[in-house]
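To close the chapter, one final illustration. This time we ask the reader to focus less on the individual chains and more on the assembly as a whole: which components sit near each other, and how the overall shape emerges from the parts.
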Amino acid sequence: MAFVHGLNTSHSGAKSSLKSKSLTPYILLAPGLIWLITFFIIPIFSLASTSTMVRPEGAQIGTYVQELRFANYVDAFLANKEQYLRSFVYAAFATLLALAIAYPLAYAIAFKSGKYRNILLVMVVAPFFTSFLLRTIAWTQILADSGPIVSAIKVLPFVDEMFRINNTSTAVVIGLAYNFLPFMTLPLYASLERIDPRTLEAAGDLYANGFTTFRKVTLPLSMPGVVAGTLLTFIPAAGDYVNAAILGNPGTKMIGNVIESRFFAVVDYPTAAALSFTLMATILILVTLYIRKSGTDELV
Amino acid sequence: MTTLAAPMPSLRHRSSRWFARNLIRIYAGLAFIYLFIPVAYTFAFSFNDAGKSNLVWQGFTLDNWKEPMWGSPGL
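The assembled structure is written out below.
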């Protein structure tokens, strides 16, 4: 230590190297900061200012002036509370479905795949090399009324003749769970794969059976993956509008669809901006509560 | 402990044991099917000999592949 210190002070360039060292973090942060300011901070302020604007009487469609009308938020929420609530319900169901599918999948890849582990990991992501839209449209055809799945289910004796999946909330949830499955699987895999096999052996040595080992060792140790995976699925799913637009019907509209149509079809920017902010705030609160509750603040 | 002529476990017993041991793998296989259904479906129906509506299987054709591969001289 003393040697390094002496070296630093005795050299002529010590001062400048010290200075550049203290600047290094800022230089490294600069690209990210510039990016965030340009594409996140500025748009967010512009959106915030749009959300309290009002269209003057007799003005052209799409013309708005700032009047700091915060009642926009109340109006926007009250007019769309149904779709708003539905978004969170669908996102929650999709997250649970994705968790139910992804946890055993990640477990199998982490512990039971042997030499095929890497190829299976690629296979988890491979379907997502094709377009998001194309896959969602393919689901409308697979779940179509005369399609293979509905026809197969209709063979069962107790199924109603009118039974359908396409254009229902079930289809939207299936689509959401499908489209965000890798975001669930990969964090789960990462946390399961990191588990020291010796902890599982120790559980076995202490006469824990397979189920107890899973409940007391594997599951708690994989909780960071569960939290990360559910967040990465829930957050985009709550704001998604593609699945509800393609797989749903007018009665399954989510808040993303409302925002999208307010922006592009109705050209009602203030309502769309107010809804975006309400959505963002709600997600933020839910995520904070969730992380608190799951007690993994220090792990995420 | 073991009796001398230990009877071979019945086929049903063995298959159920195999099933229990591989349950997680079977589940993962089903999950992979779920993941690949839309891709496989899209690929299969790219060979469908249908016009505009590609909903019902009309017969096998390679015509749909002509356009992207040889149909656009500009590429």
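The interface with chain A takes residues 24-25, 27-28, 31-32, 34-39, 41-42, 45, 54-56 of chain B (CB under 8 Å). The helical segments of chain B are 11-21, 23-45, 63-71. With these observations in hand, you are ready for the problems at the end of the chapter.
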